[in-house]
Predict the structure.
Amino acid sequence: MSLISLPTELLYMILEELGPETFQEDINRLLVCKAWYRLALPICYQRVCLTSRNLDQVSRVAAAYDVIIDNVKSVVLSLSGCDDWPPADGSSLSAFELSPAETDAASRWFGKVECALENVVEMLEEADKLEKLQFTALSQLNVARLPFPPPQDYLYGPTIYQLLDTSLSHERLTVLELDTGGSALKQSWDTYEEVHLCPLIASSFTHLRRLRLRMWRICPDVIKVLTSGIASLEVVVINISLKHPLRMDCRSWLWWSHCCGAEVHYWDHEYWPDPFMDSNEAYPTMVEAATQAKPALPKLRFLRVLSHIPAHKGLVAVDCLSGTNLMLPEGADWEDDGSVDTDNRGLYITRGVRQRWEG
């Protein structure tokens, strides 16, 4: 018996086991025959991956293929800043200046991203089968441009709020991985918008099972359990460490900015925040909030808060379930096992970081 002669239900189960990646790696795998195509196409669109380069195609694709809206279960958004800037037009530019052409290109790119994300929101409103949202927004690194141009914040605050609100309204959504440490939230090209995302994220704990977070602005409200005992969370990972995109030495690492704190323009040398800003409070504050939330999360099996210490390239972490302090090497995944911090080097964060570093 050939595979295609199997009962339709059984063949669909086999194709679903293969997963959307199988067909996205080679689109010709859809074209075995018409019957195969009808079954495989919905599976192919169960996972949609969008990047800086194809984000503006969402509206055209969604309009042409209702099958995406009807079947998408996983949306992966990976943005990396203004990756289509023109080359530098003069040698007089410093690392903190943009040429007029670059400024104009960055402004246009910001508008393009904003419009495209609005289309993504419209698509997600109808994506009733959505189970996973993975959103990464990094700063660009234009290696063709020396000195490096300052990174441009390119996320529009209200749209990001709407994106999360729309996604989290789907009770099938069980996985949220949000890493927007590469961009603050803007209101327009040159103004900023105070948008508090933390309570919105916390309000979805009744159906979320997995949560990974890193944001430029974050606060303990993000782990506040609103109703004790009914949360479904099993995995929570919060990283409060931000790497300065212009400096490559160990002093280039920054910590979070509190949601209710002062505005920070990290790309502008006149407004660089203190590298030790809130360093003696941020880490223990978030660890304490996570530890206090633990009793209200009965299904929890992994709870970790990560940060960093000066003069160390890796990360420090606290396993809030066991209270174990860990060290993770540079480049390690946030959930890697790491090694036990027997020397308590993470205490540099909570015991006078500035004095120890500058001394």
Notes: The chain has a mean pLDDT of 76. Residues 212 and 237 are 5 Å apart (CA to CA).
